[in-house]
Design brief:
mainly alpha, di-copper center containing domain from catechol oxidase, two-stranded parallel ribbon, 13 helices, 10 strands, 7% strand, Tyrosinase, Tyrosinase_Cu-bd, Tyrosinase/Hemocyanin, copper, oxidoreductase
Length: 439
């Protein structure tokens, strides 16, 4: 079925959702149930998608400036569409007919899930983009994404381009799946809210052939709690103690139980911050922690992150804890936000997903950051005129070392994975190289 039909259907369903849910009695306990069930988040997504599709149908380009040169990168249709706002030649026009739909993992068909899994395995069979001298631990194309993330970590977290950089990074991964491995689907995402109580029964992690594999094997001996400290370059003070997770060892069965992780850890026990690209082959480990999921990734946290944030500083602060933010009101309560929560919910004390630097060694990383991008997209499209180009922060993690504020003209660099682009070209899911929405 054609994409433009689905886009039209989504727009229509969005209106129905807004009307049906908007009339609910959401006071008191009913209001809390409405949030806790995920219904309010679904309503917000419906409103955002309605606004997005309305912009597409009106052929209205939210940004009003030239995007010269990006056509050379091979993005979209360069045949000579005109920008309706300024009459300039537009390198790429996202239209309802071109719009792709990013779905949550459990709403993909089994065949779609298998195609995605097979494409990820395919990336692991392709040559690395780095030489042995450049990155001794990068043995394949899948590892190349981790190398880029490791080398950029202190310039893509807790700063102005955290959201934009990872949006482009996930897109580059999807591009590699398609161009290198013949994948014909789109990037799925992981809605943590469905899984916070029993992640091992999740369609994402139940270990079936249509999942991303199982939990890690339970450790025979472990402390009942562990302390999580901030990663370098943040000072190793403070932190917080959490109950132990439910796994900790190698993924037991299902897809990626046979994965060899070649890089990291960097900022976890056993890591080497001074030799971050060393070759360190081992199994993929997971340590699912429902306590962390329930306290940081339940539907109410995602909804709160969107609804309580009136500016980008507040949004980033709630989303990622953002210790470098000016908005510290919720940081003690939120600690590391849904972003850090999602990493530790799956990775726990031992898993690759918990390592601040080398977390893309976990295949679920890209679904997790798809969800992060989804929340940002929802927040943006609820007030696109004010929020499309909203950025906040400096060039470095928590402004260590001190640097200037970032701008829309700064360059997003993902190394050899995709061409560099200015931040302004990455601020909308229907502009620059992008043409997608979340369902």
């Amino acid at each position: 079925m054609k994409q433009h039909f689905w886009a039209s259907l989504i727009s229509f369903c969005s209106i129905l959702i807004i009307g049906a849910l908007g009339g609910s009695d959401t006071s008191g306990r009913n209001r809390q149930d409405f949030v806790d069930s995920g219904a309010r988040l679904l309503q917000l997504q419906g409103e955002a998608n309605h606004n997005l599709y309305k912009a597409l149908r009106g052929h209205r380009d939210i940004r009003r400036h030239d995007r010269a040169g990006a056509c050379n990168y091979g993005y979209g249709d360069c045949s000579g569409d005109r920008d309706g706002d300024n009459g300039r030649k537009n390198h790429h026009r996202c239209t309802p007919g071109k719009l792709t739909i990013r779905k949550e993992w459990r709403f993909l068909s089994k065949a779609e899930r298998r195609k995605y899994i097979e494409a990820v395995y395919c990336l692991q069979s392709k040559p690395s983009l780095f030489t042995e001298k450049e990155a001794p631990g990068s043995k394949n194309l899948f590892d190349s994404f981790t190398v880029v993330h490791i080398t950029k970590t202190q310039f893509i977290h807790g700063n102005f381009n955290f959201l934009a950089w990872h949006r482009y990074f996930v897109w580059a991964y999807e591009k590699a799946l398609k161009e290198e491995c013949g994948y014909r689907g789109v990037s799925p995402y992981w809605e943590w809210g469905y899984d916070v109580h029993d992640p091992q029964k999740s369609a994402v992690f139940d270990g079936s052939p249509y999942s991303l594999g199982s939990n890690g094997a339970p450790l025979a001996e472990r402390e009942p709690t562990y302390r999580l400290l901030p990663p370098p370059p943040l000072p190793p003070t403070g932190g917080r103690s959490f109950p132990a997770g439910t796994g900790g060892g190698c993924v037991m069965f299902g897809p990626f139980s046979d994965l060899t992780s070649n890089l990291g850890p960097v900022a976890m026990p056993g890591g080497d911050i001074n030799n971050p690209l060393r070759y360190n082959p081992r199994c993929l480990m997971r340590d699912m922690n429902p306590y962390i999921g329930q306290h940081y990734n339940a539907f109410n946290w995602s909804t709160w992150t969107i609804e309580e944030s009136k500016d980008i500083d507040g949004f980033q602060s709630r989303l990622a804890g953002a210790p470098g933010s000016q908005d510290q009101r919720d940081f003690p309560l939120n600690f590391f936000g849904v972003h850090g929560g999602g990493h530790t919910f799956l990775g726990g004390m031992t898993g690759q997903h918990s390592d601040f630097y080398s977390s893309p060694q976990e295949p679920a990383f890209f679904l997790h950051h798809g969800q992060i991008d989804r929340l940002w997209s929802i927040w943006q499209w609820l007030d696109i005129e004010e929020r499309r180009d909203a950025i906040y922060g400096t060039l470095t993690l928590a402004n260590i070392p001190p640097t200037r504020n970032g701008t829309l003209d700064d360059i997003i660099d993902v190394g050899p994975l995709a061409p560099p682009l200015p931040v302004r070209d990455i601020m909308s899911t229907i502009d620059g190289p992008f043409c997608y929405l979340y369902q």
